Amino acid sequence: MTLGKFLLSSTMTLGIAASLLAAPRQDSAKQDMKNAGNETKQAAKDAGSATKKTAKKTGHTVKKDTKSATHKAAKKTDAGAQKVENKTQQ
To answer: What mean pLDDT is predicted for residues 48-71?
Structure first.
């Protein structure tokens, strides 16, 4: 076998092998449906997790802001009451 024929046959063999390996495997319709169902399930889990995280964060912020506003209002009320008391004592 000459070098040229050897290289030609090697190249053709490698080309055929590479094309067989590179070709995607054909899944059945049943497997496609399973994959779609699993992807949908995972997407729903991700969405639920994000919703839970956002709700917790929002609840914490509302609680913090409400507490802060309540304390601020109480201080202003005390300051106003003190001012009225000081005016009535004079």
So the answer is: 90
